[in-house]
Amino acid sequence: MRFDLAILTPYVGFLAQGALLTLEACVLALAGSLVCGALVAIARTSASPWLRRVAFVYVDLFRNIPFIVQLFFFYYGLPEIGIYLNAFATGVIALSIAGGAFASDVIRSGILAIDSGILEAAEVSGLSKRAIFTRIVMPIALRTSIRPLGSVFVNLVLTSSILSVITLNELTGTAKIVASNTFRPFEVYAALLVLYAAMTYLISLAIGLIHRRLNRDMMEAVR
Asked: Engineered SS bond to 164: which of 12, 29, 105, 173, CB 3.0-4.6 Å?
């Protein structure tokens, strides 16, 4: 068999649409994951035992159930109780909830790593607990957590390939269609390997640049 990537030329635009849909779903899911993760991290560091238990159950549950099972539950299970979502919305919600379980650990670690002296100084200055949390705790926690949160984003991109099983034509879904049309799965999936590797590499590179920029700004602020 002769390896020939030229057969993909007519499908470049189609694959690009799939890649764009993947990135769109993952960016929305990242935002959802950050919201879920922040709320759960707040609950896990709260003084309320009840909130801590609920947050622990959420994290433990969604970290130990295969994502494809979660996805099937949202897409095929919820309609049975009258909740109907299209494939894109289902994918974003499922990724957000699953990603939130991982993001919560990252954000929680960032919260716990904050120097108690900073919090004491804020209290002495007369700031309310709410102001301390929103203006000091969360910004610092998110800034110090940027690199591990980047890993969560990369994982969302990789996990998004499973969304093709609910008929969403993201990158993997479009690749399946191209493979069935061309009868050349080797070239199609070789290209898919390269595309996912390129996407995750670029995301990791961007996260690294943001991390260094934030740290540089922090050091300049300290000086």
From this structure: 173
